[in-house]
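Problem 3 from the worked examples.
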Amino acid sequence: MSSVQSSPFLRAARAVGDFSNPFYDEERHRDVWNEASAFGFQLFLLTAFLFATVCIWVVGRPALPYVQVGMVLTGAISWLTLMYAQRLGVDVLQPQRLNRVRMVPIVVLVLLLGAGAVRAAADGSSFDRGTASGALTGFLLVLAFFVLTDLRTRRAAARSEQGD
């Protein structure tokens, strides 16, 4: 990591992660902690979407603002995690690293969550229509981000294969 210039973002991430702790000096501790953190992050994503989906379908409209805040926080934490890896030169969205079958439960939960949010917001008031259109716009932007990232990664992989 010493070859990567330290930005305020990286310094803040290192402080939050407490990476200067002597615990990280031992290689096995780092490896086990990396695996545990990856497991915890994936479990966090799955349970956040599961909880939000169940809440929106069981509680309905009153849960909508809480679910929205939860999903914004989940998205922000995920984005910051990806950004940290990217800043250190690791592209975690490379096609060879992604197991698309593992994405199926998240995609199903996101679709059910979206359908539940639209159902919960469908009382006809202007605020609820705005919320539903904002959720749809956000969903489409995230989908476009993943499609563009996938295309960019595939093009980069094809260029590197041609250069080899």
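Problem 4, a separate protein:
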Amino acid sequence: MTDFAVGPSFEIGRRIDIRGPYSWFVVLKPAQDAEIALQNFMADLSAVLDVPVRVVRPTGAIIESLRAALGEPTDDAAVLTGLDQADEGTWGALDINRSGFARPGAVILWLSPAGLVGLCQHAPNLRSFVGGSIFYLGSHGETMTAAERQQRISDLEMHFKITSAEVVRLAESRALPPEPHFVEWLVLLDRGDLV
């Protein structure tokens, strides 16, 4: 795991610079105080990128709503929220219309582990836009410390009675159940590429 001195806003900003325009990311939001964490994350990311960062919440006709919101302006960073409860049909519609969401500015999907499962299961083309750029945000809007990560991984190993190596092996062979806990586990292991 690459160890950065500052939080995920630096890492995401760095990846945006590296990947350039049309980059997509997923940030797994904390289970508690997600709205406060979102505001802090957006402020930090804006400072790192030196561009505006705004929240995009789809309303009504989701495809038209998102296309309009992401299209004006197109060069800022847009944090897309409100998709945790999206059903298969919604994800499928987003996936089919993915080219309509292309924009020079970064798109960051603010999701729970369950929302990430929906993305992976029902929107494979959008998932490919994200690639391995999946970040886990701690409860105070920062990345988890190494000790916090290790404690959470240990808790998952104890609860499911399997090792992290077995989880990786199952994910590599596509035999890992698509449950939010396993998605979180892979992200904690820095193996978001296997989600």
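Solution to problem 4. The two ends are 17 Å apart (CA to CA). The first helix runs from residue 8 to 19.
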